[in-house]
Design goal:
With about 425 residues, the chain is mainly α. It folds into two domains: about 50 residues, no CATH class; about 375 residues, no CATH class. About 75% of the residues lie in helices and about 0% in strands. The chain has 22 helices and no strands. The chain is globular, with a radius of gyration of 22 Å. The two termini are about 40 Å apart.
Length: about 425
Protein backbone atom coordinates (compact mmCIF):
# COMPACT_ATOMS: atom_id res chain seq x y z
CA UNK A 1 0.00 0.00 0.00
CA UNK A 2 2.91 2.34 0.64
CA UNK A 3 3.87 2.56 -3.04
CA UNK A 4 0.19 3.08 -3.96
CA UNK A 5 -0.06 6.01 -1.51
CA UNK A 6 3.10 7.54 -2.96
CA UNK A 7 1.67 7.23 -6.47
CA UNK A 8 -1.61 8.81 -5.32
CA UNK A 9 0.31 11.70 -3.74
CA UNK A 10 2.27 12.30 -6.94
CA UNK A 11 -0.94 11.99 -8.99
CA UNK A 12 -2.55 14.70 -6.82
CA UNK A 13 0.44 16.95 -7.47
CA UNK A 14 0.28 16.35 -11.23
CA UNK A 15 -3.48 16.94 -11.40
CA UNK A 16 -3.30 20.15 -9.38
CA UNK A 17 -0.65 21.57 -11.70
CA UNK A 18 -1.75 20.23 -15.09
CA UNK A 19 -5.55 20.00 -14.74
CA UNK A 20 -6.44 22.55 -12.04
CA UNK A 21 -3.73 24.99 -13.29
CA UNK A 22 -2.71 25.69 -9.70
CA UNK A 23 0.52 27.50 -8.93
CA UNK A 24 3.17 24.78 -8.39
CA UNK A 25 4.06 26.12 -4.93
CA UNK A 26 0.44 25.79 -3.75
CA UNK A 27 0.18 22.40 -5.43
CA UNK A 28 3.26 21.18 -3.56
CA UNK A 29 1.84 22.33 -0.22
CA UNK A 30 -1.51 20.62 -0.80
CA UNK A 31 -0.02 17.37 -2.12
CA UNK A 32 2.51 17.31 0.74
CA UNK A 33 -0.29 17.54 3.29
CA UNK A 34 -2.30 14.84 1.48
CA UNK A 35 0.79 12.61 1.36
CA UNK A 36 1.31 13.11 5.08
CA UNK A 37 -2.19 11.87 5.91
CA UNK A 38 -2.03 8.98 3.42
CA UNK A 39 1.38 7.76 4.65
CA UNK A 40 0.46 7.88 8.32
CA UNK A 41 2.44 10.89 9.49
CA UNK A 42 0.81 12.07 12.75
CA UNK A 43 -1.39 15.09 11.95
CA UNK A 44 0.39 17.25 14.53
CA UNK A 45 3.72 16.57 12.77
CA UNK A 46 2.67 17.25 9.17
CA UNK A 47 2.99 21.03 9.42
CA UNK A 48 6.43 20.83 11.01
CA UNK A 49 7.58 18.31 8.36
CA UNK A 50 6.47 20.68 5.61
CA UNK A 51 8.23 23.61 7.25
CA UNK A 52 11.39 21.63 7.98
CA UNK A 53 11.54 20.34 4.39
CA UNK A 54 11.17 23.82 2.96
CA UNK A 55 13.67 25.34 5.35
CA UNK A 56 16.25 22.60 4.94
CA UNK A 57 16.27 22.70 1.14
CA UNK A 58 16.19 26.49 0.92
CA UNK A 59 18.88 26.71 3.58
CA UNK A 60 21.15 24.74 1.26
CA UNK A 61 20.18 26.51 -1.95
CA UNK A 62 19.00 30.07 -1.36
CA UNK A 63 22.44 31.72 -1.22
CA UNK A 64 23.68 29.69 -4.17
CA UNK A 65 20.61 30.39 -6.33
CA UNK A 66 20.38 34.10 -5.48
CA UNK A 67 24.11 34.78 -5.83
CA UNK A 68 24.19 32.72 -9.02
CA UNK A 69 21.32 34.74 -10.48
CA UNK A 70 23.10 37.98 -9.60
CA UNK A 71 26.37 36.81 -11.12
CA UNK A 72 24.55 35.50 -14.20
CA UNK A 73 22.72 38.81 -14.64
CA UNK A 74 25.93 40.83 -14.45
CA UNK A 75 27.81 38.42 -16.74
CA UNK A 76 24.97 38.75 -19.26
CA UNK A 77 24.43 42.52 -19.04
CA UNK A 78 28.12 43.40 -19.08
CA UNK A 79 28.66 41.48 -22.30
CA UNK A 80 30.98 38.88 -20.69
CA UNK A 81 28.65 36.03 -21.61
CA UNK A 82 28.50 37.31 -25.18
CA UNK A 83 32.30 37.44 -25.30
CA UNK A 84 32.56 33.85 -24.00
CA UNK A 85 29.88 32.66 -26.43
CA UNK A 86 31.69 34.31 -29.34
CA UNK A 87 34.90 32.57 -28.34
CA UNK A 88 33.24 29.16 -28.08
CA UNK A 89 31.53 29.58 -31.40
CA UNK A 90 34.79 30.54 -33.09
CA UNK A 91 36.59 27.53 -31.65
CA UNK A 92 33.87 24.90 -32.18
CA UNK A 93 31.57 26.49 -34.71
CA UNK A 94 27.79 26.49 -34.53
CA UNK A 95 27.70 22.94 -35.88
CA UNK A 96 29.54 21.58 -32.83
CA UNK A 97 28.32 23.97 -30.13
CA UNK A 98 26.47 21.21 -28.25
CA UNK A 99 29.74 19.33 -27.84
CA UNK A 100 31.35 22.52 -26.57
CA UNK A 101 28.56 22.87 -24.01
CA UNK A 102 28.98 19.26 -22.87
CA UNK A 103 32.71 19.76 -22.44
CA UNK A 104 32.10 22.95 -20.47
CA UNK A 105 29.56 21.22 -18.21
CA UNK A 106 31.87 18.25 -17.66
CA UNK A 107 34.92 20.31 -16.74
CA UNK A 108 33.01 22.75 -14.56
CA UNK A 109 30.77 20.07 -13.06
CA UNK A 110 33.57 18.05 -11.49
CA UNK A 111 34.40 20.50 -8.68
CA UNK A 112 31.11 22.43 -8.72
CA UNK A 113 27.94 21.51 -6.86
CA UNK A 114 25.13 20.86 -9.32
CA UNK A 115 22.99 23.85 -8.37
CA UNK A 116 25.97 26.20 -8.51
CA UNK A 117 26.90 24.92 -11.96
CA UNK A 118 23.30 25.22 -13.11
CA UNK A 119 22.83 28.87 -12.23
CA UNK A 120 26.36 29.76 -13.32
CA UNK A 121 26.37 28.13 -16.77
CA UNK A 122 22.73 28.26 -17.90
CA UNK A 123 23.03 32.00 -18.75
CA UNK A 124 25.89 31.09 -21.09
CA UNK A 125 23.62 28.66 -22.94
CA UNK A 126 20.94 31.35 -23.16
CA UNK A 127 23.39 33.85 -24.61
CA UNK A 128 24.45 31.40 -27.32
CA UNK A 129 20.79 30.67 -28.10
CA UNK A 130 19.82 34.36 -28.32
CA UNK A 131 22.82 35.45 -30.33
CA UNK A 132 22.72 32.65 -32.90
CA UNK A 133 18.95 32.15 -32.95
CA UNK A 134 19.02 28.48 -31.99
CA UNK A 135 16.92 26.66 -29.40
CA UNK A 136 17.92 27.27 -25.79
CA UNK A 137 16.90 23.67 -25.03
CA UNK A 138 19.10 22.36 -27.86
CA UNK A 139 22.06 24.25 -26.39
CA UNK A 140 21.23 23.72 -22.72
CA UNK A 141 20.46 19.99 -22.51
CA UNK A 142 24.07 18.89 -23.33
CA UNK A 143 25.34 21.25 -20.64
CA UNK A 144 22.90 19.96 -18.03
CA UNK A 145 23.50 16.32 -18.99
CA UNK A 146 27.18 16.76 -18.18
CA UNK A 147 26.38 18.49 -14.89
CA UNK A 148 23.94 15.71 -13.92
CA UNK A 149 26.44 12.93 -14.63
CA UNK A 150 29.18 14.55 -12.55
CA UNK A 151 26.68 15.12 -9.74
CA UNK A 152 25.59 11.47 -9.65
CA UNK A 153 28.76 9.59 -10.63
CA UNK A 154 31.87 11.43 -9.57
CA UNK A 155 33.39 12.23 -6.20
CA UNK A 156 33.80 14.74 -4.57
CA UNK A 157 30.06 15.31 -5.04
CA UNK A 158 28.16 14.52 -1.82
CA UNK A 159 26.33 11.31 -2.78
CA UNK A 160 29.16 9.43 -4.58
CA UNK A 161 31.67 10.55 -1.96
CA UNK A 162 29.43 9.25 0.82
CA UNK A 163 28.87 5.98 -1.05
CA UNK A 164 32.62 5.47 -1.44
CA UNK A 165 32.95 5.72 2.33
CA UNK A 166 29.98 3.44 3.05
CA UNK A 167 31.21 0.65 0.76
CA UNK A 168 34.88 1.08 1.64
CA UNK A 169 35.59 1.70 -2.06
CA UNK A 170 38.63 3.44 -3.49
CA UNK A 171 37.85 7.05 -4.42
CA UNK A 172 40.58 7.16 -7.07
CA UNK A 173 39.34 4.00 -8.78
CA UNK A 174 35.72 5.14 -8.52
CA UNK A 175 36.69 8.42 -10.18
CA UNK A 176 38.61 6.58 -12.92
CA UNK A 177 35.80 4.10 -13.64
CA UNK A 178 33.35 6.98 -13.41
CA UNK A 179 35.15 8.88 -16.17
CA UNK A 180 35.07 5.82 -18.42
CA UNK A 181 31.29 5.70 -18.06
CA UNK A 182 30.76 9.46 -18.00
CA UNK A 183 32.12 10.24 -21.46
CA UNK A 184 29.80 7.98 -23.54
CA UNK A 185 26.85 8.68 -21.22
CA UNK A 186 27.20 12.45 -21.62
CA UNK A 187 27.60 12.07 -25.38
CA UNK A 188 24.35 10.08 -25.69
CA UNK A 189 22.21 12.06 -23.22
CA UNK A 190 23.75 15.38 -24.31
CA UNK A 191 24.60 16.27 -27.92
CA UNK A 192 23.13 13.14 -29.54
CA UNK A 193 19.79 13.45 -27.73
CA UNK A 194 19.78 17.25 -28.13
CA UNK A 195 19.95 16.88 -31.92
CA UNK A 196 16.27 15.88 -31.71
CA UNK A 197 15.28 18.96 -29.69
CA UNK A 198 16.02 21.79 -32.12
CA UNK A 199 12.34 22.67 -32.49
CA UNK A 200 11.40 22.71 -28.79
CA UNK A 201 10.06 26.16 -27.97
CA UNK A 202 11.64 27.86 -24.95
CA UNK A 203 11.48 31.44 -23.70
CA UNK A 204 14.17 31.68 -21.01
CA UNK A 205 13.97 34.14 -18.13
CA UNK A 206 14.40 37.74 -19.26
CA UNK A 207 16.85 38.32 -16.43
CA UNK A 208 19.49 36.57 -18.52
CA UNK A 209 18.62 38.31 -21.78
CA UNK A 210 21.19 40.98 -22.53
CA UNK A 211 21.16 43.14 -25.64
CA UNK A 212 23.76 42.17 -28.21
CA UNK A 213 26.61 44.64 -27.87
CA UNK A 214 29.20 45.82 -30.34
CA UNK A 215 32.56 44.06 -30.04
CA UNK A 216 34.18 47.29 -28.80
CA UNK A 217 31.78 47.41 -25.84
CA UNK A 218 32.56 43.90 -24.58
CA UNK A 219 34.96 43.16 -21.71
CA UNK A 220 38.20 41.37 -22.53
CA UNK A 221 38.21 37.62 -23.06
CA UNK A 222 40.43 37.05 -19.99
CA UNK A 223 38.24 39.22 -17.74
CA UNK A 224 35.11 37.47 -19.04
CA UNK A 225 36.36 33.91 -18.52
CA UNK A 226 38.10 34.54 -15.19
CA UNK A 227 35.14 36.37 -13.65
CA UNK A 228 32.48 33.96 -14.93
CA UNK A 229 34.46 30.88 -13.88
CA UNK A 230 35.84 32.29 -10.64
CA UNK A 231 33.56 30.04 -8.54
CA UNK A 232 35.12 27.02 -10.26
CA UNK A 233 38.65 28.28 -9.59
CA UNK A 234 37.84 28.96 -5.94
CA UNK A 235 36.25 25.57 -5.37
CA UNK A 236 39.05 23.67 -7.10
CA UNK A 237 41.77 25.51 -5.20
CA UNK A 238 40.05 25.26 -1.81
CA UNK A 239 39.30 21.56 -2.38
CA UNK A 240 42.97 20.95 -3.15
CA UNK A 241 43.96 22.90 -0.03
CA UNK A 242 41.50 20.91 2.10
CA UNK A 243 43.10 17.67 0.90
CA UNK A 244 46.63 18.83 1.60
CA UNK A 245 46.29 20.89 4.75
CA UNK A 246 46.38 19.40 8.21
CA UNK A 247 43.11 19.65 10.17
CA UNK A 248 45.18 21.00 13.08
CA UNK A 249 46.53 23.86 10.96
CA UNK A 250 45.40 27.35 11.91
CA UNK A 251 44.43 27.88 8.24
CA UNK A 252 42.09 24.86 8.11
CA UNK A 253 38.98 26.69 9.45
CA UNK A 254 39.54 29.57 7.01
CA UNK A 255 39.90 27.24 4.03
CA UNK A 256 36.78 25.32 5.14
CA UNK A 257 34.84 28.58 5.37
CA UNK A 258 35.92 29.82 1.94
CA UNK A 259 35.22 26.44 0.30
CA UNK A 260 31.51 26.54 1.25
CA UNK A 261 29.51 26.95 -2.02
CA UNK A 262 27.53 29.86 -0.62
CA UNK A 263 30.68 31.72 0.39
CA UNK A 264 32.30 30.95 -2.97
CA UNK A 265 29.33 32.50 -4.76
CA UNK A 266 29.31 35.56 -2.50
CA UNK A 267 33.03 36.18 -3.03
CA UNK A 268 32.57 35.71 -6.77
CA UNK A 269 29.71 38.22 -6.91
CA UNK A 270 31.70 40.80 -4.95
CA UNK A 271 34.69 40.43 -7.29
CA UNK A 272 32.46 40.53 -10.37
CA UNK A 273 30.87 43.71 -9.03
CA UNK A 274 34.26 45.33 -9.51
CA UNK A 275 35.71 43.54 -12.57
CA UNK A 276 32.56 43.59 -14.73
CA UNK A 277 30.84 46.51 -13.02
CA UNK A 278 32.74 49.32 -11.37
CA UNK A 279 35.89 48.80 -13.42
CA UNK A 280 33.82 49.13 -16.61
CA UNK A 281 32.18 52.41 -15.53
CA UNK A 282 28.92 51.01 -14.16
CA UNK A 283 27.72 52.95 -11.13
CA UNK A 284 27.02 51.06 -7.92
CA UNK A 285 23.33 51.95 -8.18
CA UNK A 286 23.18 50.47 -11.71
CA UNK A 287 24.79 47.26 -10.52
CA UNK A 288 22.46 46.97 -7.53
CA UNK A 289 19.46 47.52 -9.82
CA UNK A 290 20.64 44.58 -11.92
CA UNK A 291 20.92 42.45 -8.79
CA UNK A 292 17.43 43.46 -7.67
CA UNK A 293 15.99 42.50 -11.07
CA UNK A 294 17.74 39.13 -10.89
CA UNK A 295 16.35 38.45 -7.42
CA UNK A 296 12.79 39.33 -8.43
CA UNK A 297 12.92 37.01 -11.39
CA UNK A 298 13.91 33.96 -9.32
CA UNK A 299 11.49 34.49 -6.41
CA UNK A 300 9.00 31.94 -7.75
CA UNK A 301 11.79 29.47 -8.45
CA UNK A 302 12.78 29.63 -4.78
CA UNK A 303 9.18 28.98 -3.69
CA UNK A 304 8.80 26.03 -6.06
CA UNK A 305 12.08 24.53 -4.86
CA UNK A 306 10.86 24.98 -1.28
CA UNK A 307 7.63 23.17 -2.17
CA UNK A 308 9.60 20.24 -3.57
CA UNK A 309 11.53 20.16 -0.29
CA UNK A 310 8.27 19.92 1.66
CA UNK A 311 7.06 16.88 -0.30
CA UNK A 312 10.45 15.21 -0.03
CA UNK A 313 10.45 15.69 3.76
CA UNK A 314 6.99 14.14 4.11
CA UNK A 315 8.22 11.08 2.21
CA UNK A 316 11.36 10.94 4.35
CA UNK A 317 9.56 11.37 7.69
CA UNK A 318 6.98 8.73 6.79
CA UNK A 319 9.73 6.16 6.22
CA UNK A 320 8.56 5.43 2.68
CA UNK A 321 12.12 5.16 1.34
CA UNK A 322 13.01 2.37 3.76
CA UNK A 323 9.76 0.50 3.17
CA UNK A 324 10.29 0.48 -0.60
CA UNK A 325 13.94 -0.55 -0.33
CA UNK A 326 13.28 -3.34 2.18
CA UNK A 327 10.56 -4.74 -0.05
CA UNK A 328 12.86 -4.88 -3.08
CA UNK A 329 16.12 -6.13 -1.63
CA UNK A 330 14.95 -9.77 -1.66
CA UNK A 331 14.50 -9.73 -5.45
CA UNK A 332 16.73 -12.23 -7.27
CA UNK A 333 18.86 -10.36 -9.81
CA UNK A 334 22.41 -9.14 -10.48
CA UNK A 335 23.49 -7.06 -7.45
CA UNK A 336 24.49 -4.07 -9.59
CA UNK A 337 21.09 -4.09 -11.29
CA UNK A 338 19.32 -4.58 -7.94
CA UNK A 339 21.14 -1.62 -6.39
CA UNK A 340 20.31 0.51 -9.46
CA UNK A 341 16.66 -0.51 -9.40
CA UNK A 342 16.16 0.18 -5.69
CA UNK A 343 17.78 3.59 -6.09
CA UNK A 344 15.79 4.41 -9.23
CA UNK A 345 12.44 3.57 -7.62
CA UNK A 346 13.23 5.61 -4.50
CA UNK A 347 14.41 8.47 -6.71
CA UNK A 348 11.16 8.46 -8.72
CA UNK A 349 9.09 8.33 -5.53
CA UNK A 350 11.09 10.75 -3.37
CA UNK A 351 12.67 13.10 -5.91
CA UNK A 352 16.07 13.59 -4.31
CA UNK A 353 19.08 11.93 -5.95
CA UNK A 354 21.10 12.21 -2.75
CA UNK A 355 18.34 10.76 -0.55
CA UNK A 356 17.80 7.90 -3.02
CA UNK A 357 21.50 7.07 -3.19
CA UNK A 358 22.15 7.20 0.54
CA UNK A 359 18.96 5.31 1.42
CA UNK A 360 19.93 2.48 -0.93
CA UNK A 361 23.44 2.45 0.51
CA UNK A 362 22.03 1.90 3.98
CA UNK A 363 20.14 -1.17 2.74
CA UNK A 364 22.86 -2.58 0.49
CA UNK A 365 25.92 -1.91 2.66
CA UNK A 366 25.42 -4.92 5.00
CA UNK A 367 25.10 -7.17 1.94
CA UNK A 368 28.23 -5.98 0.09
CA UNK A 369 30.49 -8.70 1.55
CA UNK A 370 28.15 -11.45 0.31
CA UNK A 371 27.42 -9.92 -3.09
CA UNK A 372 30.77 -10.64 -4.77
CA UNK A 373 30.67 -7.27 -6.54
CA UNK A 374 33.25 -4.51 -7.02
CA UNK A 375 32.37 -1.77 -4.50
CA UNK A 376 33.56 0.95 -6.90
CA UNK A 377 31.07 -0.23 -9.51
CA UNK A 378 28.38 -0.43 -6.85
CA UNK A 379 28.92 3.28 -6.14
CA UNK A 380 28.48 4.07 -9.83
CA UNK A 381 25.44 1.82 -10.22
CA UNK A 382 23.66 3.56 -7.35
CA UNK A 383 24.79 6.94 -8.70
CA UNK A 384 23.21 6.15 -12.07
CA UNK A 385 19.98 4.98 -10.46
CA UNK A 386 19.77 8.16 -8.39
CA UNK A 387 19.31 10.20 -11.59
CA UNK A 388 16.38 8.18 -12.97
CA UNK A 389 13.40 10.10 -14.44
CA UNK A 390 13.37 13.44 -12.66
CA UNK A 391 9.79 14.70 -12.48
CA UNK A 392 7.37 16.79 -10.39
CA UNK A 393 8.85 15.99 -6.96
CA UNK A 394 12.42 16.98 -7.92
CA UNK A 395 13.66 20.54 -7.41
CA UNK A 396 15.88 20.18 -10.50
CA UNK A 397 12.79 19.57 -12.66
CA UNK A 398 11.33 22.90 -11.59
CA UNK A 399 14.59 24.80 -11.84
CA UNK A 400 14.89 23.64 -15.45
CA UNK A 401 11.24 24.40 -16.27
CA UNK A 402 11.30 27.88 -14.77
CA UNK A 403 14.76 28.93 -15.98
CA UNK A 404 14.08 27.75 -19.54
CA UNK A 405 10.40 28.73 -19.32
CA UNK A 406 9.08 25.65 -21.14
CA UNK A 407 5.79 23.81 -20.73
CA UNK A 408 5.31 20.86 -18.37
CA UNK A 409 4.97 18.57 -21.40
CA UNK A 410 8.22 19.80 -22.96
CA UNK A 411 10.02 19.63 -19.61
CA UNK A 412 9.19 15.92 -19.42
CA UNK A 413 10.11 15.38 -23.10
CA UNK A 414 13.50 17.04 -22.64
CA UNK A 415 14.71 17.18 -19.03
CA UNK A 416 13.05 14.00 -17.72
CA UNK A 417 14.05 11.95 -20.76
CA UNK A 418 17.63 13.27 -20.57
CA UNK A 419 17.89 12.22 -16.92
CA UNK A 420 16.47 8.80 -17.80
CA UNK A 421 19.05 8.36 -20.57
CA UNK A 422 21.80 9.21 -18.09
CA UNK A 423 20.48 6.61 -15.63
CA UNK A 424 19.99 3.82 -18.17
CA UNK A 425 23.22 4.26 -20.12
CA UNK A 426 25.10 4.78 -16.86
CA UNK A 427 23.93 1.33 -15.75
CA UNK A 428 24.86 -0.17 -19.13
CA UNK A 429 28.35 1.30 -18.76
CA UNK A 430 28.68 -0.17 -15.27
CA UNK A 431 27.63 -3.64 -16.46
CA UNK A 432 30.10 -3.50 -19.37
CA UNK A 433 32.91 -2.55 -16.98
CA UNK A 434 31.86 -5.41 -14.69
CA UNK A 435 32.68 -7.86 -17.50
CA UNK A 436 36.34 -6.79 -17.47
CA UNK A 437 36.99 -6.04 -13.79
Amino acid sequence: MTILYVLISIAILVLLIVWAKLNPFLAFLISSICAGFLLGVPPEQIASSVQNGMGHLLGDLVIVIVMGAMLGKLVAESGAAQRIANFLMKVFGEKHITWAMSLTGLVVGIPLFYNVGFVLLVPLAFTVAYQYKISAVYVGIPLLAALSVTHGFLPPHPSPAALVAQFDANMGLTLFYGFLITIPTVAIAGPIFASRLKNIEAKPLKTFQAEIKDESELPGIANSFITALLPVVLLVSTTALNLNISPESSFAPIVSFISDPGMVMLISVLIATYTLGLKRKYSMSQIMDLYTQATKDIAMILLIVAGAGALKQIFTDSGVSLVIAEGLKTWQMHPLVLAWLITAIIRVCVGSATVAGLTTAGIIAPLVTTMNVDPNLLVLSIGAGSLMFSHFNDAGFWMYKEFFNVSIKDTIKTWSVMETLVAVFGLIGVLILDLFI
